[in-house]
Design goal:
Length: 149
């Protein structure tokens, strides 16, 4: 499979809602989801748009394939910005669970390959958050695997 040219990928698009004051427009395509808690997923951001504010509850690695991904780390206790960084094509990062941040596509958007690992319990992957840190939704391996059957 060529991740940059595969026309058979099934993309799910997420757009802004009434609860958000920033432009949300991103899509994801699951490449593989396994019973052992491993998930490979492609995520693409439209230019200058965000995904939902979130916390990673699983171990995660990512590789920027195209464009720029702007990442803003947030202190969940205070809501204050801890720092910003721009990740470009070729940048690889590995993080342990607990990372809280906003991600935004650059001027030309972004395409990123994510590898998540949630081996225990419910297989919690990501918590989508309101600005005050309240959990909006939780993504789990269990739910993903159930949908794929």
């Amino acid at each position: 499979m060529n991740l940059l040219n595969d026309k058979t990928l099934k993309w799910k698009r997420y757009t802004e809602g009434d609860d958000f004051d920033y432009p949300i427009d991103y899509s994801d395509a699951i490449l593989d989801a396994r019973e052992d808690g491993r998930l490979e997923i492609l995520v693409k951001w439209e230019p200058n748009c965000y995904c939902h504010f979130h916390r990673h509850t699983a171990e995660i690695s990512s590789l920027v394939l195209e464009g720029e991904l702007h990442v803003t780390d947030i202190d969940i206790e205070t809501g204050k910005e801890l720092g910003k960084r721009v990740r470009v094509a070729g940048d690889f990062v590995h993080k342990e669970p607990g990372d809280v941040h906003m991600e935004q596509g650059g001027a030309n958007g972004a395409l990123v390959l994510f590898n998540l690992y949630a081996p225990e319990g419910e297989g919690k992957l990501v918590e989508s958050l309101k600005k005050d840190g309240t959990i909006i939704s939780v993504s789990t391996m269990e739910r993903i695997l159930r949908k794929r059957k």
